[in-house]
Design a protein that fits this description.
single chain; alpha/beta; Chemotaxis Receptor Methyltransferase Cher, domain 1; Rossmann fold; 2 domains; seven-stranded mixed beta sheet; globular
Length: 291
């Protein structure tokens, strides 16, 4: 038994005076995977610990196991889980990320939906993080002139309330623009000359129909939006357990209309899963299509 294991077994303070009894992190990992779908392998347990310890200390606990009991059994768990999601969410995003799918949306997917008789096209971005993806979707459709030709709704959702609050502020730093062409940035954003920040135009921001906090793992929370024609769910499944990914994708396969278009990240694949989706090349972009 190494020194860390001996400390945990003895129940002595491990981090900032907070005791971390043996197997507490494993229990929290299992709970988080079941509730939020997020997976922490053994090599990332220290990261999980470092993110949860401050929350437990703020709650006045002297043991991380007490925090586990709060999340698992306490009546106040429903109010605590949003804080956990804020802490665990990864907000690495930027405008025009993986733009091949954005271009395919405007050039190929929307025309196909119109050809199928759709007159009210619904698009869902989850996780939307701080807003760069749904606003990029809006820019792509605006550039193609689709908002003037067909009714389009763009819905944005994320599990993190703090991320949604940043999106509502409409202000972005230079890193968010590292892929967006300058002419599009200048067209849709106004720069604050005193800071390296840009504010999105009210007209473009208004193209996003709704912003909501929800947990993709929850079938109840996602029921209304899981019926959208196009769903952008990119760079999220890489953090999820395989069981959670399978459950979510099968659910979307049941609820999305046909044809329905599911865009995932370039590093993600659903090919080994038994689903209703077929991977297709649409105008140079790989998209999963429910036929």
């Amino acid at each position: 038994m190494n020194s860390t294991s001996r400390q945990r077994a003895a129940g002595v303070p491990d981090v900032r005076g907070l005791r971390i009894p043996d197997r507490t992190l494993e229990l929290l990992r299992e709970l988080i995977a079941s509730v939020a779908g997020i997976h922490y392998d053994d090599g990332r347990l220290d990261l999980l610990r470092d993110r949860l310890v401050p929350l437990a200390i703020e709650r006045g606990f002297d043991s991380l196991l007490d925090y586990y009991y709060l999340l698992k059994y306490d009546a106040g768990a429903e109010q605590e889980w949003p804080r956990v999601m804020d802490t665990l969410s990864v907000q690495e995003t930027y405008f025009w990320r993986e733009s091949d799918q954005l271009k395919a949306l405007a050039a190929t997917i929307v025309p196909q939906l119109i050809a199928q008789g759709r007159r009210n096209i619904r698009i869902w971005s989850i996780p939307c993080a701080t807003g760069e993806e749904p606003l990029s979707i809006a820019m792509s459709l605006e550039e193609a002139g689709w908002f003037e030709r067909v009714a389009i709704q763009i819905h944005a959702s994320d599990a993190s309330q703090s991320a949604l609050a940043k999106a509502a502020a409409r202000r972005y730093g230079r890193r968010s623009f590292r892929q967006l062409p300058d002419q599009m940035r200048d067209k849709y954003f106004t720069r604050d000359r005193d800071k390296e920040e840009w504010t999105v135009s009210p007209d473009l921001f208004a193209r996003v129909t709704s912003w909501s906090r929800l947990n993709l793992v929850s079938e109840t929370e996602t029921a209304a939006l899981a019926t959208c024609d196009v769903i952008f769910c990119r760079n999220l499944f890489i953090y999820f357990t395989p069981a959670s990914v399978l459950e979510i994708v099968k659910r979307l396969g049941r609820t999305m209309p046909a044809p329905g278009f599911l865009c995932v990240g370039a590093a993600e694949s659903l090919l080994r899963l038994s689903t209703n989706f077929e991977l297709k090349d649409l105008g140079g972009a790989y998209v999963y299509v429910k036929s």
